[in-house]
Every structure is written in structure tokens, then in C-alpha cells.
Amino acid sequence: MDKNILESLARLEESLSGVDSARKMVSDTIGSYKDVSDKVRDYADSLKDVSGIIRDLIVVVKENKEHLSDNISKELQGTLDKFTGSINSFNSSSRLLLDGFKNEAGTLRKGLSLELGSSTSFG
Predict the structure, then answer these.
(1) How far is CA 69 from CA 19, 33, 64, 72, 77, in A?
(2) Which DSSP string do the residues of 25-47 spell out, in sequence order?
(3) Cα dihedral sign for 78, 80, 82, 85?
(4) How many angstroms separate the CA atoms of 46 and 114, rounded?
(5) What percent of the chain has pLDDT over 70?
(6) According to the model, what pLDDT value does residue 118 have?
(7) Strand, coil or helix: what is 1?
(8) CB distance 100 to 93 below 8 Å
(9) Is the dihedral of CA 97, 100, 104, 109 positive or negative?
(10) Does the predicted model carry a pTM greater than 0.85?
């Protein structure tokens, strides 16, 4: 009988150990959940702040749309004018180089034709 009581106590102790282990797991899970919950709350608060800033920015842009649009148009026109000037300058320079090359090629061709013509007539 004492043996049965000891075995029962041993099983009870083992069960209590399992219950204590389960309690610890629940406690750890709740602690982890709280940490995650706090981080998610902080993240949500940050998103709320960013959302407010974006709303404010939208209002400012809407209120200054015409002014911003005029400034952007002027900046774009200035940039386009610079590009057009650069393109025209490049075209002029290219045209001068090509004309010079064409003239030199023509001169060389004439000279070569004269050389070939004179060497074939004397040869």
C-alpha cells in the first residue's frame, strides 16, 4: 500500500511538473504577445503620424497648386531652352565638322583621281 501511495505521489509530482511547464509556456506566450502588441501599437502610432504629415502635405500642395505649377513650368521651360541650345550648338559643330570632312574627302578624291589618271596614262 505504501508503494501504491508513493507511486501515486510520483505520478502526481510528474503531472504537477507538466502543469507547471504548461503554465510557464502560457506565461511566456502572454509575455511575447504583450511585446509584439506594444511594437505593433508603436508601429501603428508611427503610421498615424506619417499619415497626418501626408495629409498636411496634400493640403499644402492643393493650396499652392497654381504657384507650384507655374514654378515647375518655368523650370521645365528653362531646362528645355538649355537643351535646345545645346542641341543647336551640337548640330552646328557637327555640321562644321562634317562639311570640313566632306571638303577634305573631295580634295583627296580629286587628288587620288589625278594620281590614278596620270599613272594609268603613263603606265
Answers:
(1) 70, 50, 8, 5, 12
(2) HHHHHHHHHHHHHHHHHHHHHHH
(3) negative
(4) 85
(5) 94
(6) 62
(7) coil
(8) no
(9) positive
(10) no
